[in-house]
Design goal:
Layout (H helix, E strand, L loop, with lengths): L1 H25 L14 E4 L2 E4 H4 E7 L2 E6 L5 H10 L6 E4 L2 E5 L5 H38 L5 H34 L2
Helix pairs in contact: 1-4, 1-5, 4-5
Length: 185
């Protein structure tokens, strides 16, 4: 019973961490990254489709993203989607390919990104703590209903706290790495 709660807690914390990692990969740093655009939604023949399903996306240079659509007819739709997005880069269309030349980050923009990163880190920590609270209340409910002993409750809460500490440490490490990446010129 306790192991079920721990497994469920670990699964929830893993998915929270995955969402956080995904968010970090989309944040701009000193280099161009395909993660900035690969999940961008493009209207293609009346359907919203992720860009990565419509084109090959690569970074031929450190500050450039190259998009090669599989279908030449998608070029205009992709260009429009990029212009409508909030990545702040104008696409350069050269026939069948689209190039995104990433401007260097200003010091001010880097500071704003770090502020955003820190708020995102805190939101993720809070989500992990909420999962901990939920797991602990499940364990307390089991103890109230005499399904587990008081000792099992304490042991279970201790295990949940270990998981919480482990995931918060991972969040902090990932955040610190990303901050260094953003601030490196």
């Amino acid at each position: 019973m306790i192991n079920d709660v721990l497994d469920e807690t670990k699964d929830k914390m893993n998915s929270t961490l995955s969402v956080y990692e995904d968010d970090l990969s989309k944040m701009r740093s000193g280099r161009a990254s395909t993660a900035l655009v690969d999940r961008l939604m493009v209207e293609y023949y009346g359907q919203d489709t992720e860009l990565r399903q419509l084109a090959t996306i690569s970074t031929p240079e450190a500050m450039q993203i190259l998009i090669r659509p599989y279908d030449k007819g998608a070029v205009k739709s992709i260009e429009k989607a990029i212009q409508a997005s909030d990545i702040g880069v104008n696409p350069n269309v050269d026939g069948e390919n689209i190039r995104l030349n990433m401007p260097p980050l200003t010091k001010e923009r880097r500071k704003d990104l770090v502020k955003f990163l820190n708020s995102r880190m805190e939101e993720t920590r809070v989500a992990i703590r909420n999962i901990r609270r939920s797991a602990n209340s499940d364990l307390q409910e089991f103890e109230k209903e005499k399904m587990i002993s008081e000792d099992d409750l304490k042991r279970g809460e201790g295990e949940v706290q270990k998981l919480t500490d482990e995931y918060i440490k991972k969040i902090d490490e990932l955040g610190k790495e990303k901050e260094e990446d953003i601030m490196s010129v």
